[in-house]
């Protein structure tokens, strides 16, 4: 759990070269369009466009499937419920709409470097300075979090081992309370370290 | 380190009740470490109930704890940081999910609901005395960690899928028993933490003095 990487697939397609902000905006617009489309034919057309976009991007079908995979069972359940209650055409449109929205969003993620997306989101979040988060603190917060994931994961492993040694493997309480306390202690040490390095003003 | 630098805005360092213009450095550290904790609670093998037989995602448990321990503002910020990293493409949600797809998928509303959810947990937990007892924590986790999250999640799911609200609610109710168990557990754990680590409730007094 040391190397946290996103789902980005390197490439040189036009989709890769578009800016992250442009892609985010396009995603928002096309998801709105998906909601507005209501006939099976129109959604079939939208599906063709999405397939075409995937083909242009060259990320590969396996990567695309990995994006849609988490909602597969939900899609099946949705189709079944809608087919029984509202008829097959509605079942097709609503299931297709949901899957296409996930696929499109996945395509943006697959063709945008995590760092570029992060920079773009940081710019979008500039108004956060009104709740006390200037851009510098915001990016510090984000990178500290990325760094903290392996640390907290290590703390969790240690607590689990201690738990096993104490013979209380089954108790969630014996896991979560020590974990939380070590997490808090780590956070307070980290805060102290940041303060020592003059990160107060 | 002149005098006029130290006088203003320092006395209100210890509480969460007053909106400050700037986040203290200790707050930054706590927010990021708790955001990481929520992510770790979703790792496969990170936590498992009953050995490895029942894989359960404990991320909502983490959201409740962030609200209960950090308070409304910092708890919600911890969730926000996690969601931004997820949106940027990092696989920090349960099952290694991440990327923008989760925000256009059927459970987008639940995910967004974590934000006000953590805030409400923190608000209810912090609205009483200094340290909330088990009963208050339980009410907070039930209202914020389940009530608010479902209140946002179910209608968004209904809107995204075209399902009637009742049907979407029925689909989501599968997760209700697990979430109830998590709320009870979060209250037990949070009250245990407050007892064992009294500084958990807020910035320690040391922090106000020890700057520079």
Summed up:
Chain B: Its main location: membrane. Chain A is mostly helical. Chain A has helices at 14-17, 20-36, 40-57, 61-68, 72-86, 88-111, 114-124, 135-166, 173-196.
Structure, described:
The complex is a heterodimer of chains A (201) and B (212). By secondary structure, chain A is an all-alpha fold. Chain A has two domains: 14-124, no CATH class; 129-196, no CATH class. Helices cover 76% and strands 0% of the residues of chain A. In chain A, helix 2 packs antiparallel against helix 6. The mean pLDDT of chain A is 88. Chain B is mainly α and 212 residues long. Helices cover 63% and strands 0% of the residues of chain B. Chain B has ten helices and no strands. The longest helix of chain B has 28 residues, at 134-161. The radius of gyration of chain B is 18 Å and the shape is globular. Mean pLDDT of chain B is 80; it is low at 1-19, 45-55 and 203-212. At the A-B interface, helix 2, helix 5, helix 6, helix 7 and helix 8 of A face helix 2, helix 3, helix 4, helix 5 and helix 9 of B.
List the uncertain runs of chain A.
Answer: none
The secondary-structure element order of chain B is HHHHHHHHHH
Q: Compute the number of structural domains of chain A.
A: 2
| CATH architecture classification name of chain B | Orthogonal Bundle
End-to-end distance of chain A, in Å?
Answer: 33 Å
Give the total of beta strands of chain A: 0
What is the 3D form of chain B?
globular
CATH fold-type name of chain B: Arp2/3 complex 21 kDa subunit ARPC3
Percent of residues of chain B in beta strands?
A: under 5%
Quaternary class: heterodimer
Distance between the termini of chain B: 9 Å
The pLDDT mean of chain B sits at 80
| Poorly predicted parts of chain B | 1-19, 45-55, 203-212
Helical fraction of chain A equals over 70%
Strand content of chain A: under 5%
Largest sheet of chain A: none
Q: Please give the domain count of chain B.
A: 1
Percent of residues of chain B in helical segments?
55-70%
- Largest sheet composition of chain B: none
Q: Structural class of the secondary elements of chain B?
A: mainly alpha
Overall strand count of chain B: 0
